[in-house]
Sequence to fold (357 residues):
Amino acid sequence: MKKPVTLDGLENKWWRGQDLNLRSPKTPNLQSGAFDRSATPPHRNQGRSKNQQKMSFLQAQRKIEFPFCVKRFIYQDMKNKSKNFQKPFERNRKKPAKAPHGKAVSGNLVKTGTEHLIWGTHAAEAAWMNPARTIKALYITDHALEAFKPVMERAAAIAGLTRPAPVVTDRKTIDKMIGGDAVHQGLVLDCAPLEEVFINDLIIRTQAKDNAVIVMLDQVTDPHNVGAILRSACAFGAGGLVMQRKFSPSLCGALAKIATGAVEYVPVAYEINLADTIDKLRVAGFNVYGLDERGDQSISTIAKTGKTVIVLGAEGKGLRPKVRDHCDMLVQLPTAGPIASLNVSNAAAIALFALRC
Fold:
């Protein structure tokens, strides 16, 4: 007749080192003294490494003995995870949105690596003559230096500006500085960015004027389009330009080259929420018109006096619903040909002409 299993027997078997998860029992740990029930047994993780502790935990959960190949896989998996450890609250975090045109994003502005460079004859001349612009260096070829000397003399004699001495170099060196196939015309400026402008600054600048036009761009991210719009805004006397800070191009590089110096004359405000910005402009006395091909009225019906904001959207997407709803009215450019839409820079030029003529 078998003896009944008692609690003392189980405790004694456990204390001797009998491990039910293993196929063979451990060597008994013989003690000279009697077993003390009140004594605290040694911790199961004492003397074990972290990987051994994890393996012991997995074995206790699954009640199986892992083969050597499985152990090796688990150890390698733990090792790989330890290199790329990610906190639990970061695992479900949304990935940052990618910038348009394959460029990196830093501080919500699109960074191309040339934010401190301005090239092109007209853009460099306007920046050189701007007292608010800090010029760090001028890299120029021998041929371009002869044409740029009158600008340097005029800046020193008339404006009294102190500029650094030009660094004469070759065209290949300038090509490496700006990268790509940009047309730099043999000169490039290394300069600091202009002081940042906000929507309240534009309101204050146009406060004393009876007639003022401000251009607002809703997710227009192409630097060539923004540069062309800046050039038109400068030509038609616009009081400023407003862009969304997210994904907007910097006011240097290709944008400054296309603008041909308009960056130095037209203040540009970067705002986070364009809908809230529209509300601020309406409170300041501006009439806000969204340019949309689905508009009910033609832009020619808008009064050419007073303070006006013209809002243009990106090509294809147009104005976003929230921005469109905050406009006072949607207007369109009347077209008669088979193609009803225009490039956003061309549409901006026509709209500015219609508001001032």
User: Anything to note?
Assistant: The CA atoms of residues 205 and 239 lie 8 Å apart. The longest strand covers residues 212-218. DSSP finds 13 helices and 14 strands in the chain.
